[in-house]
Known about the structure:
By secondary structure, the protein is of the alpha+beta class. The protein has helices spanning 24-27, 51-64, 70-110, 112-116, 130-148, 151-155, 165-176, 181-204, 245-271, and strands at residues 2-6, 9-13, 18-22, 39-44, 211-215, 218-219, 225-226, 229-233, 239-244, 278-282, 296-300.
Amino acid sequence: MEMITRRDGLYAVSLDKIIRVNLPDDADPAMQHANAPITQTLIVENGSRSSIVARTILQAKDFSRFFPAQEKQERMQDIAWEVMFSLLAMDRIVTHLNTSIESKKATISEDYSRYVTGASPPPPPIVEDLELQFRSAVLISNHAVNTISELFSVFFDVNFRRGAFDRITSWSSQRFGKDDVLTLMLEGDHRWINTWGEVRNAFEHPKEDYYVKVNNFRLLPDRQIQIPTWQLKHPKLDLFRPQDLVGQLRIHQSNILGLFENLLVLLVDKAASLPVPVALIDKKETDRDPDCPKRYDLQFVIPVPPKSK
């Protein structure tokens, strides 16, 4: 589907996997072996059919062509690849959690009354390593968001601390105006970015009034069994009510991917010098190519000369 050159080799993106190819002189630069082979390394078993792959590295490749400077293209690709790996890792954690939760739900439903009746019913089965996996998903997602923030230094002569979206929003307001679409988008995304940043920070620096509580399957006082949830105790945020663990992670994953895509669109529009107009088509999910479901389609618009009278 696509060949992408990176500093450590040529990456072939097929429908279902990504393979790095190194030529003999690349794999054996000292030429110590006369018959050195062309080496192939399987990087991930996700290819262009994965929406994460299509909407990160392949989408970024489309946008990078508007920047002739190779350094900018490489930096944009580096960010896209890091976001891709983070989201793939997060997706595998969430998928595994969801599978485990559904399996335990089926087990509980087979003998539901056993876990809800009596003075002291036995504890329901639990998802193993639930908190460990939730912590991992939070840390990985935080890394992805911080990596996305580095896009601004690719397009503009600015240098923000990784993940400092509050400062980035302030900079956008001063440079482009408080009513600019970029500023408004950043302000809108600030709530969920800040929330998950606080979850990560509360894991790492817990206090009496600032911590994360992860609940496995548990029996509630009304004798209903609650599916796995998380809670954030925070002196300023009202987030101590139980949140659907898998559902919220899915939303978070979708928001991260959307943030990356939308910033590509807005920053390229503001920073690139386009020789001809470019049409941006935001395709509905049902209209995307299943073999490469990129969200945005870019098409050069060739001006039609006016008819002579």
